[in-house]
């Protein structure tokens, strides 16, 4: 097992390396929205809102995130709310269905899923009302059998769109993965299962007009290279792992989530920023060392303790690019 809290993202920002022409945002803008600097747990952003970053084009890797002033080692640069999240299937009764917080009470709740608070229940109301109408057992089983996590995120987005709380183009700004014909065939099967489940639940065709094969594969292609695997560093995480050890199916990750701004960070095997999750899906981007004004901020998409060849293989296979960071170039 990797160090707890180690950042991993099983998806790939080949975006930055290969698809510059597809950039959907202006070449440079300063972040003024989607983040908050109100942090708890005694962490203080070093300066007030807005966060000290801008998103601009890099010389060779598409868009990237840059510091707009010097940032001190250990500083919280910004936080980010997820656009989309879903717990691991094996943990539906153990982590909050909305924010992925681990259940601390042993009281069992006679419900299919667990919500940690009224607030989370309220936030979930829209998509959960739609979800509850359908029988997801076949869809979930398909995900379980094939070890798939991302269709669950597409399912959630579809239900969010159906309930009117999200737009069907919410993820369009994110870079999509290149898909092989084999992947597309599998995705089309998943699409069929999702559409069938919703149809059986009485959702009308006109409500589902957005839910086409093309939409499904487009969303999944974006999720593949932009979803973060969430491992919490907060207190009860150790307990979860202990109890999870009893269950063959249980996973170390509490779930997966998609964010906007964190997806714009490029990769480095010797990163200057890391992303951490304390006790729920809210992400924190923190400086790992002193950063100069205009320096590019980068995170590590994989376990940085792996050796050069293992890193290159994983980055290429999972993320679709060859890493040319200084550490890789030095052969380390
Ligand atoms: Zn919650
Ligand atoms: Zn590298």
UniProtKB/TrEMBL annotation:
Coiled coil: none annotated. Residues 51-302 form the SET domain. Transmembrane segments: none annotated. This is SET domain-containing protein. It comes from Tetracentron sinense (Spur-leaf). One of its GO terms (cellular component) is nucleus. It comes from the Eukaryota. Pfam families: SET. PANTHER family: HISTONE-LYSINE N-METHYLTRANSFERASE ATXR4, HISTONE-LYSINE N-METHYLTRANSFERASE SMYD.
